[in-house]
Structure formats: C-alpha cells, structure tokens
Design goal:
Layout lengths: L3 H12 L22 H20 L8 E4 L3 E2 L10 E3 L4 E4 L32 H13 L3 H8 L17
Antiparallel strand pairs: 1-4, 2-3
Length: about 170
C-alpha cells in the first residue's frame, strides 16, 4: 500500500474533479491506534495529503471540499486492548477553499464520567449524515428528497447541516 500522501497526490492529479459537480473518493483503511505515538505520524500524513490535494487542484481549490469522515468511533480513555478503538462518537474534518472555515462546529458534551455514552465513550451530538447531506445539497446541488430517500435511505428526519460553505 502506498503512503497516504502519495495516494492522495495520485488521486488528486489523475482523477480530481475539474468542476464542482464531480467527486474523487480517497479511501484509507482505519488505523489501529495503540499507545505508541502512531497518531501523530498518521495525522502528519493526513496533513501532507490535504496539502498535496490543494497543490494539485491549483485554482480549483477555491471550489473544493475535502471531507474526512469515519463512522468508526474512539473511546474516551485507553481501553482493554491498550487503544481507543471501538468507541461511539467520531469526528468529521472538512478542508477546502469552498468552505466557510476556521471554526469548530460541535455541541461538546464533555469527558466527565456522567457525560460519557455508556460510561466510556464520547457522546454523539451530531448525525454525520447531516454533515454529508449539507455538503451534497449545497455544494453539489443534490435535492434534499434524493438525499433522504436514495443517498441516505430512510433519513428524512436528518436535516442537511447548513452554513458549511462560503456561498450556498
């Protein structure tokens, strides 16, 4: 497997969207994080991958959204396997010139034991489908009815998150 930076640069240069109505998925297997400092290395590789995409996109970066989303949650504390895998809540990181950036959007529940989900995990506060629906609706102009029935079936109650882009 190629390093993340090389994979991202290859994807950006060979299959990158030239118009804002195209998508170029980049996939990476989830890392198993143990107490060995790998997280810093992986986050550094992610930073390099995003920088490579920005560089390769040139002027199209202004119209670009990079969404880093996983459904794989982490525990709030080191667990029985000496890691933080198999938790509930997770994070979505967004980058790109099309975003209204420079902020954190969250309802922070805290890490006190009484605030944790099932006493061990960060409590989920945002349905990630809302983030993805907001991006698809405002950036790629996918109709809300299509998002609720075809893209994310049976998700009518999950409304698209608004205000993610500079201009919607």
């Amino acid at each position: 497997m190629r390093p993340l930076r090389a994979s991202a640069a290859w994807t950006a240069s060979s299959r990158a969207p030239r118009r804002p109505d195209r998508c170029a998925p980049i996939s990476r297997n989830r890392p198993v994080l143990r107490r060995n400092g790998r997280l810093a290395t992986l986050l550094g590789a992610l930073d390099g991958a995003i920088a490579a995409i920005e560089t390769e996109m040139k002027d199209a970066w202004r119209e670009t959204v990079v969404a880093i989303i996983t459904e794989f949650g982490r525990t709030a504390r080191i667990n029985g396997t000496d890691g933080t895998d198999h938790g509930t809540a997770t994070v979505a990181l967004l980058a790109g010139g099309a975003l209204k950036g420079g902020r954190v959007i969250a309802d922070w529940p805290g890490l006190k034991p009484g605030k944790l989900h099932e006493g061990r995990d960060l409590k989920p506060t945002t349905d990630l489908r809302a983030v993805r629906k907001g991006l698809l609706k405002d950036h790629l102009r996918v109709e809300p009815a299509v998002l609720a029935t075809k893209v994310f079936p049976d998700s009518v109650v999950v409304k698209p998150m608004s205000g993610l882009l500079q201009q919607a």
